[in-house]
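Is it possible to get an amino acid sequence alongside its tokenized fold?
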Amino acid sequence: MKRILVFGAGAMGSAFTVPCVDNNNDVVLVGTHLEDVTIEIIKKEENFHKILNCKLPKNLRVEKFEKFQDEIKKKPDLIVIGVNSKGIEWAGKEISKNFNSSSSILLLTKGLTVINNKFETLVEKFKFILKNNGIDDVKVSAVGGPCLASGLANRIKSSVVLANEKIEIVKSIRDIISTNYYAVECSNDLVGVETCAAIKNIYSMIIGASEGLSSSNVNKDTKSKYYLNTAASLMYKAISEMVYFTKSLKGREESVYGLSGLGDLYVSSAGGRNSKMGKYLGEGYDYKTAKEKFMKNETIEGAELALEIGTKVLKDFDRKKIPLMISLIESIIENKKLEINW
């Protein structure tokens, strides 16, 4: 039995506790300072999670943020970060206060960033944050793959890939979290896995826009019936661009065709926040209008990523190589109608 601390009581952080508990670990879910009410409700309703619409394991401990430092001091074997990308820096500072180097860290959060004018994975950013707070030589791994939180929480058969440049680290994590319904692969292509896990959110938005983009001449009813031709074409082009972009960042092509690339793109484009926003963009809304009108309180990871790395992508990459990504980035940054040059 291992001690596992999951930080962040959102959908994926909470769902991740299910295979951890089922694999006979001592697991605690601690909410952020913004999730006190969420934690109170989960406790009051005997571990029922409203967003996931199911009960979390009865032997899962659930605590408010005020207990976080007490749990860190217990030296958990694994600390799982389930906050969104905007909260990564804050989470790193909080973890640094009582962190013990014997703990491994696993990021559920996906993203890319720019540090010192260089594209970096979220793992590197997290290490950078920890180092600035006095923590060196920390084991940080990433997870990617086609695993929606609600499916995992309901023990639907799912597969993910864990990545670390030192593959023995993720193999040890695999051994304490995998179950008969939660299959775990391991990879030492950290850059490739993280890059795919991040940019698939951009391409999910584009594929989500396929119905609106499918024709400028036919009516909405016809497009809703026959847009899959367009969706398939965009899927193919998206994978081609993901290969080019991932290899440009020194990741491996095989990761694009694996769980964190093709697998995750499939499930994300079939449903979810990014695909939903893409649908509105395809209908002709600009991003800010669609966000305010339809998705005001939701985090759109693909749009956040476009804002995070978009300026450098536009500067460093040839439009002819990644026309879909650049079109989406321009649409978000300039807040203009999404247009694809077919």
Notes: The chain is about 50% helix and 15% strand. The mean pLDDT is 95.
